[in-house]
Amino acid sequence: MSLDRIKAMEVFTCVVALGSFSKAAEAMRLPKARVTTLVQQLEAHLGVRLLARTTRRLHLTDDGAAYQQRALALLQELGDLEGSVTRSVKTPEGRLRVDVAAAAARHLIAPALPEFFRRYPRMALELGSSDRPVDLIAEGVDCVIRGGQVHDDTLVARPLGSLRVITCAAPSYLASMGTPRHLHDLDQHMFVNFFSAKTGRVFAFDFERDGRTVEVTRPHWVAANDADTHVAAGVAGMGLVQTPVNLEVQRHLKAGRLIPVLTEWTAAELPLVILYPRNRHLSAKVRAFVDWAVSLYEAERQPTAS
After folding, report:
1. Which of 183, 205, 216, 305 could bridge to 242 as Cys pair (CB 3.0-4.6 Å)?
2. How many CB atoms lie within 10 A of CB 5?
3. pLDDT at 175 over 70
4. Residue ranges per domain, the chain?
5. Pick the CATH number of 165-268 from 3.40.190.10, 3.40.50.300, 3.50.50.100, 3.30.1340.10
Protein backbone atom coordinates (compact mmCIF):
# COMPACT_ATOMS: atom_id res chain seq x y z
CA MET A 1 0.00 0.00 0.00
CA SER A 2 1.44 3.38 -0.99
CA LEU A 3 1.91 5.97 1.73
CA ASP A 4 -0.36 9.02 1.74
CA ARG A 5 2.43 11.37 2.74
CA ILE A 6 0.25 14.44 3.31
CA LYS A 7 -2.14 12.49 5.52
CA ALA A 8 0.82 10.99 7.38
CA MET A 9 2.25 14.48 7.96
CA GLU A 10 -1.09 15.71 9.29
CA VAL A 11 -1.38 12.73 11.63
CA PHE A 12 2.22 13.04 12.83
CA THR A 13 1.93 16.77 13.61
CA CYS A 14 -1.37 16.16 15.40
CA VAL A 15 0.19 13.39 17.53
CA VAL A 16 3.04 15.74 18.45
CA ALA A 17 0.66 18.62 19.27
CA LEU A 18 -1.52 16.48 21.54
CA GLY A 19 1.25 14.22 22.88
CA SER A 20 -0.84 11.12 22.37
CA PHE A 21 -1.86 8.69 19.61
CA SER A 22 -5.27 8.25 21.24
CA LYS A 23 -5.99 11.98 21.45
CA ALA A 24 -4.82 12.48 17.87
CA ALA A 25 -7.10 9.66 16.70
CA GLU A 26 -10.06 11.23 18.48
CA ALA A 27 -9.30 14.74 17.17
CA MET A 28 -8.89 13.51 13.58
CA ARG A 29 -11.76 10.99 13.84
CA LEU A 30 -9.56 8.07 12.83
CA PRO A 31 -9.05 4.63 14.41
CA LYS A 32 -6.07 4.65 16.77
CA ALA A 33 -4.55 1.74 14.84
CA ARG A 34 -4.69 3.81 11.64
CA VAL A 35 -2.92 6.73 13.34
CA THR A 36 -0.19 4.43 14.68
CA THR A 37 0.25 2.75 11.28
CA LEU A 38 0.58 6.06 9.42
CA VAL A 39 3.30 7.31 11.78
CA GLN A 40 5.16 4.00 11.51
CA GLN A 41 4.89 4.07 7.71
CA LEU A 42 6.16 7.65 7.67
CA GLU A 43 9.17 6.68 9.78
CA ALA A 44 9.85 3.71 7.49
CA HIS A 45 9.56 5.93 4.42
CA LEU A 46 12.01 8.47 5.86
CA GLY A 47 14.33 5.85 7.35
CA VAL A 48 14.50 7.60 10.74
CA ARG A 49 12.71 7.51 14.06
CA LEU A 50 10.56 10.58 14.59
CA LEU A 51 9.14 9.71 17.99
CA ALA A 52 10.69 8.02 21.00
CA ARG A 53 7.93 6.08 22.73
CA THR A 54 7.87 5.16 26.42
CA THR A 55 5.07 3.67 28.46
CA ARG A 56 4.13 7.13 29.75
CA ARG A 57 5.14 9.75 27.20
CA LEU A 58 6.08 10.50 23.62
CA HIS A 59 9.23 12.46 22.85
CA LEU A 60 10.41 13.94 19.57
CA THR A 61 13.79 12.74 18.40
CA ASP A 62 16.15 15.33 16.93
CA ASP A 63 15.12 14.17 13.45
CA GLY A 64 11.48 14.31 14.53
CA ALA A 65 11.78 17.90 15.76
CA ALA A 66 13.38 19.01 12.50
CA TYR A 67 10.77 17.14 10.44
CA GLN A 68 7.87 18.54 12.48
CA GLN A 69 8.97 22.13 11.89
CA ARG A 70 9.22 21.65 8.13
CA ALA A 71 6.01 19.61 7.98
CA LEU A 72 4.01 22.33 9.75
CA ALA A 73 5.31 24.95 7.32
CA LEU A 74 4.52 22.72 4.32
CA LEU A 75 1.00 21.91 5.51
CA GLN A 76 0.28 25.59 6.10
CA GLU A 77 1.55 26.48 2.63
CA LEU A 78 -0.57 23.73 1.11
CA GLY A 79 -3.62 24.89 3.04
CA ASP A 80 -3.12 28.48 1.91
CA LEU A 81 -2.72 27.32 -1.70
CA GLU A 82 -5.88 25.24 -1.64
CA GLY A 83 -7.78 27.99 0.16
CA SER A 84 -6.77 30.61 -2.40
CA VAL A 85 -8.04 28.40 -5.22
CA THR A 86 -11.27 27.16 -3.66
CA ARG A 87 -12.55 29.90 -1.39
CA SER A 88 -13.99 31.91 -4.28
CA VAL A 89 -16.38 29.08 -5.18
CA LYS A 90 -17.21 27.79 -1.69
CA THR A 91 -20.04 29.19 0.35
CA PRO A 92 -19.10 29.34 4.05
CA GLU A 93 -21.47 27.07 5.93
CA GLY A 94 -21.65 24.80 8.95
CA ARG A 95 -20.72 24.94 12.61
CA LEU A 96 -17.82 27.13 13.69
CA ARG A 97 -16.34 27.13 17.21
CA VAL A 98 -14.61 30.35 18.24
CA ASP A 99 -13.25 31.49 21.61
CA VAL A 100 -12.82 35.21 22.28
CA ALA A 101 -11.58 37.13 25.31
CA ALA A 102 -14.63 37.89 27.45
CA ALA A 103 -14.48 41.68 27.13
CA ALA A 104 -14.16 41.52 23.33
CA ALA A 105 -17.00 39.00 23.09
CA ARG A 106 -19.40 41.21 25.05
CA HIS A 107 -18.50 44.64 23.75
CA LEU A 108 -17.34 44.08 20.16
CA ILE A 109 -18.04 40.65 18.66
CA ALA A 110 -21.58 39.96 19.93
CA PRO A 111 -23.02 43.38 18.96
CA ALA A 112 -21.68 42.94 15.41
CA LEU A 113 -23.02 39.40 14.85
CA PRO A 114 -26.21 40.43 13.00
CA GLU A 115 -24.04 41.86 10.23
CA PHE A 116 -21.93 38.67 10.18
CA PHE A 117 -25.00 36.47 9.70
CA ARG A 118 -26.37 38.72 6.99
CA ARG A 119 -23.21 37.85 5.09
CA TYR A 120 -23.06 34.18 6.09
CA PRO A 121 -26.60 32.92 6.85
CA ARG A 122 -25.62 29.26 6.45
CA MET A 123 -23.17 29.27 9.33
CA ALA A 124 -23.78 28.42 13.00
CA LEU A 125 -21.44 30.04 15.51
CA GLU A 126 -20.53 28.62 18.92
CA LEU A 127 -18.90 31.56 20.70
CA GLY A 128 -16.95 30.88 23.85
CA SER A 129 -16.02 33.93 25.91
CA SER A 130 -13.16 33.52 28.37
CA ASP A 131 -9.69 34.78 29.17
CA ARG A 132 -8.28 31.30 29.82
CA PRO A 133 -5.79 29.56 27.52
CA VAL A 134 -7.51 27.27 25.01
CA ASP A 135 -6.05 24.11 23.45
CA LEU A 136 -7.57 24.51 20.00
CA ILE A 137 -6.97 20.96 18.73
CA ALA A 138 -7.87 19.10 21.93
CA GLU A 139 -11.01 21.20 22.48
CA GLY A 140 -12.10 21.25 18.85
CA VAL A 141 -11.96 25.05 18.60
CA ASP A 142 -11.47 26.50 15.12
CA CYS A 143 -9.91 29.84 16.10
CA VAL A 144 -9.45 32.20 19.04
CA ILE A 145 -8.93 35.93 19.50
CA ARG A 146 -6.45 36.88 22.20
CA GLY A 147 -4.24 39.72 23.37
CA GLY A 148 -0.51 39.36 23.94
CA GLN A 149 2.53 37.79 22.38
CA VAL A 150 2.22 34.35 20.73
CA HIS A 151 4.79 31.73 21.69
CA ASP A 152 3.30 28.67 19.99
CA ASP A 153 4.66 27.76 16.57
CA THR A 154 1.80 25.32 15.98
CA LEU A 155 -0.55 28.30 15.58
CA VAL A 156 -0.91 30.90 12.85
CA ALA A 157 -1.34 34.41 14.27
CA ARG A 158 -3.04 37.04 12.13
CA PRO A 159 -2.70 40.55 13.59
CA LEU A 160 -5.83 42.52 14.49
CA GLY A 161 -4.07 45.67 15.69
CA SER A 162 -3.14 46.69 19.21
CA LEU A 163 -4.60 48.47 22.22
CA ARG A 164 -3.04 51.37 24.11
CA VAL A 165 -2.45 50.56 27.79
CA ILE A 166 -3.03 53.17 30.49
CA THR A 167 -2.90 53.46 34.26
CA CYS A 168 -6.08 54.86 35.79
CA ALA A 169 -8.36 54.88 38.82
CA ALA A 170 -11.86 55.86 39.89
CA PRO A 171 -12.42 59.42 41.16
CA SER A 172 -13.52 57.97 44.52
CA TYR A 173 -10.22 56.15 44.94
CA LEU A 174 -8.15 59.20 43.99
CA ALA A 175 -10.17 61.40 46.35
CA SER A 176 -9.43 58.98 49.20
CA MET A 177 -5.83 57.99 48.46
CA GLY A 178 -4.52 60.92 46.42
CA THR A 179 -3.33 61.10 42.82
CA PRO A 180 0.17 59.68 42.20
CA ARG A 181 2.47 62.17 40.46
CA HIS A 182 5.67 60.10 40.41
CA LEU A 183 6.45 56.37 40.43
CA HIS A 184 7.70 56.55 44.02
CA ASP A 185 4.21 57.73 45.02
CA LEU A 186 2.96 54.23 44.16
CA ASP A 187 4.39 52.99 47.47
CA GLN A 188 1.31 54.55 49.10
CA HIS A 189 -1.22 52.98 46.74
CA MET A 190 -3.11 49.74 46.18
CA PHE A 191 -3.34 48.07 42.78
CA VAL A 192 -6.20 46.15 41.23
CA ASN A 193 -3.99 43.32 40.01
CA PHE A 194 -4.52 40.97 37.08
CA PHE A 195 -3.42 37.34 37.37
CA SER A 196 -2.98 34.56 34.84
CA ALA A 197 -5.87 32.09 34.65
CA LYS A 198 -3.34 29.41 33.68
CA THR A 199 -0.50 29.93 36.16
CA GLY A 200 -1.94 32.23 38.82
CA ARG A 201 0.98 34.63 38.32
CA VAL A 202 0.19 38.26 39.11
CA PHE A 203 1.32 40.65 36.38
CA ALA A 204 3.36 43.71 37.35
CA PHE A 205 2.49 47.21 36.18
CA ASP A 206 4.85 48.30 33.37
CA PHE A 207 6.03 51.88 32.90
CA GLU A 208 8.21 53.24 30.07
CA ARG A 209 9.76 56.68 29.64
CA ASP A 210 12.78 57.99 27.73
CA GLY A 211 13.98 54.46 27.00
CA ARG A 212 13.70 53.42 30.66
CA THR A 213 11.40 50.55 31.65
CA VAL A 214 10.22 49.99 35.22
CA GLU A 215 8.11 47.16 36.63
CA VAL A 216 6.13 47.88 39.79
CA THR A 217 4.30 45.39 42.01
CA ARG A 218 1.99 46.42 44.82
CA PRO A 219 -0.49 44.62 47.10
CA HIS A 220 -4.16 44.52 46.26
CA TRP A 221 -7.55 44.37 47.85
CA VAL A 222 -8.82 42.72 44.67
CA ALA A 223 -7.15 40.76 41.86
CA ALA A 224 -8.98 39.34 38.84
CA ASN A 225 -8.30 37.07 35.87
CA ASP A 226 -11.11 38.46 33.72
CA ALA A 227 -10.67 41.81 31.95
CA ASP A 228 -14.21 43.07 32.62
CA THR A 229 -14.02 42.18 36.32
CA HIS A 230 -10.58 43.77 36.53
CA VAL A 231 -11.86 47.06 35.13
CA ALA A 232 -15.09 46.91 37.15
CA ALA A 233 -13.07 46.64 40.37
CA GLY A 234 -11.17 49.76 39.33
CA VAL A 235 -14.40 51.64 38.61
CA ALA A 236 -15.61 50.59 42.08
CA GLY A 237 -12.63 52.37 43.63
CA MET A 238 -10.59 49.33 44.67
CA GLY A 239 -7.23 50.67 43.48
CA LEU A 240 -5.13 51.73 40.52
CA VAL A 241 -5.72 49.75 37.33
CA GLN A 242 -3.39 49.26 34.37
CA THR A 243 -5.55 48.18 31.46
CA PRO A 244 -5.78 48.09 27.67
CA VAL A 245 -8.13 50.78 26.38
CA ASN A 246 -10.88 48.64 24.85
CA LEU A 247 -14.39 49.87 24.06
CA GLU A 248 -15.64 49.46 27.63
CA VAL A 249 -12.66 51.33 29.09
CA GLN A 250 -13.21 54.10 26.55
CA ARG A 251 -16.79 54.48 27.83
CA HIS A 252 -15.61 54.68 31.44
CA LEU A 253 -13.01 57.31 30.52
CA LYS A 254 -15.52 59.39 28.58
CA ALA A 255 -18.03 59.26 31.45
CA GLY A 256 -15.39 60.16 34.03
CA ARG A 257 -15.70 56.86 35.88
CA LEU A 258 -11.97 56.31 35.32
CA ILE A 259 -9.25 58.99 35.39
CA PRO A 260 -5.82 58.45 33.77
CA VAL A 261 -2.80 58.95 36.04
CA LEU A 262 0.97 59.05 35.50
CA THR A 263 0.32 60.03 31.89
CA GLU A 264 3.94 60.99 31.28
CA TRP A 265 4.74 57.28 31.52
CA THR A 266 3.55 54.79 28.89
CA ALA A 267 3.18 51.02 28.80
CA ALA A 268 3.73 48.61 25.92
CA GLU A 269 0.67 48.30 23.70
CA LEU A 270 -1.23 45.00 23.80
CA PRO A 271 -1.14 43.24 20.41
CA LEU A 272 -4.38 41.56 19.33
CA VAL A 273 -4.30 38.43 17.18
CA ILE A 274 -6.64 35.81 15.80
CA LEU A 275 -5.13 32.32 16.05
CA TYR A 276 -5.85 29.05 14.28
CA PRO A 277 -3.93 25.75 14.07
CA ARG A 278 -1.07 25.72 11.61
CA ASN A 279 -1.68 22.12 10.60
CA ARG A 280 -5.39 22.59 9.89
CA HIS A 281 -6.50 23.53 6.39
CA LEU A 282 -8.16 26.92 6.49
CA SER A 283 -11.74 26.10 5.52
CA ALA A 284 -14.10 28.57 3.89
CA LYS A 285 -15.97 29.09 7.17
CA VAL A 286 -12.80 29.75 9.20
CA ARG A 287 -11.44 32.08 6.54
CA ALA A 288 -14.78 33.93 6.46
CA PHE A 289 -14.71 34.53 10.21
CA VAL A 290 -11.03 35.50 10.23
CA ASP A 291 -11.47 38.01 7.40
CA TRP A 292 -14.63 39.42 9.04
CA ALA A 293 -12.87 39.79 12.41
CA VAL A 294 -9.94 41.60 10.79
CA SER A 295 -12.31 44.06 9.09
CA LEU A 296 -14.33 44.49 12.31
CA TYR A 297 -11.28 45.37 14.39
CA GLU A 298 -10.00 47.68 11.67
CA ALA A 299 -13.34 49.53 11.63
CA GLU A 300 -13.38 49.86 15.42
CA ARG A 301 -9.85 51.24 15.60
CA GLN A 302 -10.18 54.89 16.57
CA PRO A 303 -8.53 57.48 18.81
CA THR A 304 -9.27 56.78 22.47
CA ALA A 305 -10.23 59.18 25.24
CA SER A 306 -7.47 60.52 27.41
Report:
1. 205
2. 15
3. yes
4. 5-86, 94-163+271-300, 165-268
5. 3.40.190.10
